[in-house]
Amino acid sequence: MRGTLLATDVAQMTTQTEVHLKKTLGLPSIVLFGLAYMGPLIMIGMFGVIAAASDGAAAGAMFLATVAVLFTALSYARMARHFPASGSGYTYVRKTVGPRSGFMTGWVLLLDYVFIPLVIWLVGAEYLYAQFPDIPRAVWLIIFIAATTAINIIGIKVADRANMVVISFQVVILALYFILSINHIVQEGGAGAFLTMEPFIGVHQEIGPIASGAAIAAYVFLGYDAVTTLAEETKNAQRTIPLGLVLVALFGGVIFVITAFLMGIILPAGSEYAEAAGSEVALTIGGHVFAAFFLTALVAQQFNAGIAAQASSARLLYAMGRDGVFPKSFFGRLSPRFLTPVNNILFCGGIGLIAIFLSLSTSTSFINFGAFVGFTMVNVAVIAYFIRNRSQERLNPAVYVVLPAIGAVIDIYLLLNLDGLAKLVGGSWMVLGFIYLIVLTRGFTRPTPELSANALEAADPDAVKSAKIDMRAGDANA
């Protein structure tokens, strides 16, 4: 789901917490968990935005994004072998490149923590507005934010069984979407309709629009690294987790590319792509009944993901407030009544209201700025590990230098293809973070603060354990 990146880093930044869980999970369970956690319908939900940005080359954009993520997944897997108790890009950079680089990586990823709930709510609002245009999009957005904020303040945890039902429903809808899409294409154009390359090359047949689409398409992968949170429950975790990371990225990419290809045939290049194009295709291939089921599944996915993302964001901000990275008087307080970080939950909800003035593509770009910086730095961390340890360990330069270097170059290329506003906001945030680091370290005369979540355990000893256990059922609202 869309809150996965948040939940992953919250759990993995708590590196000193010892939670002993039974090792029962094998590779198939790890891969299925990762695929489910990314959100089975997210590619369909984002198709209109990706297709518009790529000038009809949604499948090509998705393929390029998959390549970028696969190179980074290989680097994540390499780091997971050396630091099996960790799973966050922030931690890898801190341990290999240095604490200052780690701090800046974590700081940039805060853009994700702030904007992921916003994008989740905006996707759900866009689809509901497309179905019920008489109700303004802003109203649907406020309903999403108000409902998830109330649930997170009170501290209600979505039941594991309910989550599994929602995920299973999404998988069924995705399978039907595939079947109905193929049937529709065969009926309209015959088997030869599948031979087209248009969904890969688009209208202009140029790399520029495809790269712009890929810069947005990477959003659908956020959370693929969530499998690292299951290391304590996985048999032979040092081998299974790294392999699972790569397979989740690979299989997820294949599913996303096929989905984009089928939808690109149904809505060919040159079409007018609405942000809620997924519902338009659902109506075309399955009629009103299937379109209603699809909308229900997508909204349920976004609602669950919104709860998880907002809860994770608020708890990370709380932990950073407790650690003194942020002002403790606001961010480091728990509600005496609900024992939840109410200030931070309301803060995240307030940020979400900015979506009233943003398009889905722009808000997604904000998140991908942080994601591409994080991806780049994970690749750099592998190279740094090679430089530091090549004299003590037998390390293959092709694996530890060439592959991560290629991954870093691709990530930077896609980063540069984000829209101008995203680069302006992201770049400004980086400058602000560097200035803040200078202030925190008194001009680098004091140690760089660690963006840890240890204070979370002190306030709620069961929080981290609950987060890790509940992730198996797709619920990060610990």
UniProtKB/TrEMBL annotation:
Keyword Transmembrane helix attributed: yes
InterPro entries: AA-permease/SLC12A_dom, APC_superfamily
Segments traversing the membrane: 30-51, 57-77, 103-123, 135-154, 166-187, 207-231, 243-269, 281-300, 338-360, 366-386, 398-416, 422-440
Amino acid permease/ SLC12A domain segment(s): 35-439
UniProt subcellular location: Membrane
Main location: membrane
Membrane topology classification: Multi-pass membrane protein
Keywords assigned by UniProt, alphabetized: Membrane, Transmembrane, Transmembrane helix
Keyword Ribosomal protein listed: no
Identification of the protein by name: APC family permease
Source organism: Brevibacterium daeguense
